[in-house]
Each structure stands twice: as C-alpha cells, then as structure tokens.
Amino acid sequence: MSFATTHGVALDGALGHLIDIQTDVSQGTPGMVVVGRADAAIREGLDRVRMAVTNSEFQWPSSRRTTFLLSPADLPKSGPHFDLSMAIGVLLATEQLKKVDRALLERSAFIGELTLAGGLRPAPGVLPMALAAAQRGIRRIFVPEPQCEEAQLVPDLEVIGVRSLAQVAAVVSGADELPLAPPVAELSGAQLVQWRGADRLDEVDLADLAGMADEKYAVEVAAAGGHAILLTGPKGCGKTSLAERVPTLLPDLALEEALELTALQSLAGAVAPGAGLARRPPFAAPHHDASKVSVIGGGSGRVRPGELSLAHCGVLFLDEFPLFRADLIEALRQPLESSEITIARREESVTLPARALVVLASNPCPCGNWTAQASTNRCRCLDRVRRVYEARMSGPIVDRIDIVRHVRAMSPADVDPFAPAEDSAAVRERVAAARARQAARFDGCGWRLNAHVPGPRLKHDWPLEPGAARLIDAAAGAGRLSARGVVRVQRLAWTVADLRAVDAGRAVAVDRPPGVEAVEVALRLRSGTPLDSATVRRRPVAGEVAS
Ligand SMILES: [Zn+2]
To answer: How many whole angstroms from 378 Cα to the centroid of ligand 1?
Structure first.
C-alpha cells in the first residue's frame, strides 16, 4: 500500500471542521507537495514532519514523491497542528506500522504540532476541534498530553494524551507499552491571556447597594434581555459597583453556552487545568489602556480571541469608556450591532461569537466632577479636553447602546431604611424566568435573547401592539429616535414586557405583544430619562400583561 487516509480538524474561528488527509507515496520526482487550500504554516511544516519522522527512528521515503491532499478542498486550512496526522499518514502509506486496526483508524483523529525531534507541541483550540470531530463520527482523538482534560469535556470521545510521534505510532500499532518521551510544554498563550472569568457570586451582591432603585431596575432589564447599557455620573456615585454586580444577576450558563464559551477559551489557550466547562457567566473588565487586539481579538500569527469573545454569554465592562483608544471604540460598533466580531487577516477573515452584555461607564469629564450647575461645578478640566471627552460618548457608539442611565450621587436621604435591598439571587430568578420566555419564543431561531433579534425579523414576526408602535413612530418622527434607536426600543419593550409577565406570575405563557406602557418604559430607558416609581417598585401595571 502506498496510500493512507487520516483525520485532522481545521478551525474556522471557534468552529471546527473534520478534514481528511490523504497521503500518497509514489514514483515521480522526489519531493513533497500539499494540495487543498493549506496555508503557509502547513506547507512550511513539511520539512518539520519529515525530520520528526526520521528522528523518531522511522524511514522517510526520500526517493519517492509524497503528496498530501487535504479535503474538503474548498475549506481553508491553517496551523501546524496538522503535522501529526500527516506524519501518521506517511507511516501508514509506507507500511511502517504493523497490526493497525483499520476500522478504529477510520474513526480516529490526530491533533498536534511536531518538533524536529519528534515530540509534540500543544495546539490552541483543542476543545472546538474535539467537538467537531465527535460530531462527525470520530470516536478516538490523539491530543498533546497537557490538553487531554480539555478534550475530555466532549462526551463519548476516547481521548489519548500523547507526548511524541513515536508514542502515537505505538498506540496505532496496538503496542502494549509506550516509548518514553519528555513532557509536552504548556501552550504559551495560557500565560498571555489573563482570564478573569471567576465566579463573583461569593464576592459581591446587589443587596450591598442601598437605594438606586431606578438603576437596579435598568440593570435587571439589561441582564434579562442582553441589552448594552451605559452608566454615566460623577466620580464615586456607584457606577462601577453596579456594573460589577451585573454578572451576579445572570443565571448559570446553559450547556450550549458553556460549550461555546469554553471553546473560545480553548482558542485563546485560556482553559485553566482542571477548570472543566465554564458554568458561570464570565466577567471581563479590561483597563482603558488595553490594546485593540487584547479586547477585540486578532494578533500576528494565529487569531486570538479578545476579552470581548472571552466574555461571551457574560459581561464585558469598560469603565471610563471615553478614555479607551479611539480605534478600539470604533471596533466595538460591529459586535454591538451583530453580536459577533470579524477579524480581518491577510488571506482570510475569522468571525468569532461575541454575545457579551456590554456595560459602559463614563464620568461627565476626565476629572469626574463636572456638573451643569455652575454653583456646584468643581471640574478643573480644560474646556477643549472636556469637549473631546464628551464627543467620544456621542454618535455611533451611543446610538448602539440600548439603555442609558445617569447615576446620581446618593445621599443618605435617598435611602429608605425600611425597604431592605433585594439580593442578587431574587433578581437572578426573575432574569432566568424572563430568559426562559425568550428562549421559548425564539426556539430554533439561532439566538436566545431579545437584544439579538435582527431588526427586520422583529418587525415582521414579533410586532408591537398598534398603539405602542405608533408611540415609537411619533418619537422617530419628532427626531427623538434614530432608525437604529427604533429597533432598540422595540427590543427593550419586549424585555420590559417579559419581566412584567414574570412579575405577574406567568413564567412561560402566551406572548402578548408589548403595549404602550412597556414602550413608554423602553423609551425612558433608552433616552436616559428617570423611570416612574411604579415601574421601579416592580408592581405589575394593571391592564397590560397582568390581565
Ligand atoms: Zn472635569
């Protein structure tokens, strides 16, 4: 036999695709060639594969022509992790492996970059690769030893952690003992990505914050529907404390969300050993000095997900937002619009999911003390500096924010000592119920929350009550809502109605379209206008959904 087929996995963003690697060793001009949209890393790796084979005490067919055909041909393939499947392909095609179980081989996949000595290097993205392999009928996967645990998160898959090409060859040949090999190094990215997806439930709680009824209602709506929110206000008014508590309002991740998030962590090389599947929504809060690449994703060489993708299904908090780099602010437009981020590369572009709930906070000026009232204004910023700062908070980005709240500095008189603050667990329960309503409504649509419904679908499939729609038209006609704002108010109105239905004790019931009152609340949330006390005290309003 001078021909063999092995399996590897190509990554497209955080999605894996099973790839057949057909290896042919035959007469012809001696040399090596790889066919099938392989990138430079794969082509340049051919010599590495050859040396790994000879240094593992196997023969390389130097006098013959070795062709690797990677299929499906139309799919771009990149990364050195195809080395292992190509090397095994050569050993099989040249019949250097004995006692091979062909049926098992057909259902095996090989992942790993080779060193010249025949050792293995880890590969980023092992979890999405293993997931894709299992979905396509693969039952046994070989991965570099340190990444064994990560691949084991995939059910019904035998994971074999290996250190070298020789060890893989021994397993494939049915050997009882594995040849010794030095341990595989950890993935370098693991140190680079500071993963802060910690569960904060034990550390902070909404009940820590007294008063703030209006703002607490706003973050509950944001959490329930996945709406981006902007908190503005003077220094020390509690914006940051409020933002840090948003993750505590989110329910545990569904299995599907957990797999998506952990796949992104895997791609970033940020799956902590022993951490298993992510269960709680992540919280990322990069500093305003952060680079565009670290927040949005990208980088030279392979694409690394940024904090935005690592906060998928959780919260991305950008404190002092106007101080972030202009190119980063600009780049946030796409994820705020489409819940994903496309990173353009030289040869291709990679799209990663980025459904983080975005929370922005901003002071009124760089020093944080500016107020419109001259008598209390203690701002020391230059007018010019303050205007540049303000300009960043207007226009395209803010138009893409669903909820705006101007947080006032609290005084003791604002707090009612006889009204104990509700804790995060109680709010989280309502958020979960509101999300369950949305999940039922959007079953099979490809999104789970109101904030992610495409505008045209919303208008067509889930219209508001006629009176409520007229209210939005009037606001748009009067120039108080942009075209983008119209869609965002419609989405918000659905979330307000979902929460009211939950209050009224109808967890998952027939959806009645939001009426005038829900739209009034949505318009206030969007425009930064304070809410009336009936709304924030969480009493269902008679006549609307409570009927
Ligand atoms: Zn100032």
So the answer is: 7
**By three-state DSSP, how is residue 193 classified?**
coil
Contact indicator for 504, 540 with CB cutoff of 8 Å: yes
Kindly give the distance from the C-alpha atom of residue 363 to the centroid of ligand 1, in angstroms, as a whole number: 9
Specify whether the CB–CB gap between 401 and 360 falls below 8 A.
yes
Question: Distance (Å, rounded) from C-alpha 490 to C-alpha 344?
Answer: 32
The string of pLDDT tens digits covering residues 146-185 is 889 889 988 889 999 999 999 999 999 998 888 988 888 8
Tokens of 207: 């009940």
Distances in whole angstroms, Cα of residue 69 to Cα of each of 6, 42, 89, 517? 11, 12, 11, 62
What spacing in Å lies between the alpha carbon of 384 and ligand 1's midpoint? 11
Question: Ligand 1 centroid to 390 CA: how many Å?
Answer: 11
Q: Which residue has the tokens 């005490």?
A: 57
Cα(481) to ligand 1 centroid in Å equals 29
Task: Identify any residues that bridge with 6 across adjacent strands, giving them in sequence order.
Answer: 21
Contact, 345 vs 300, CB < 8 A? no
pLDDT of amino acid 414: 67
pLDDT tens digits for 270-298?
Answer: 776 666 777 889 899 999 999 999 999 88
Give CA–CA dist 146/521, Å, rounded.
52
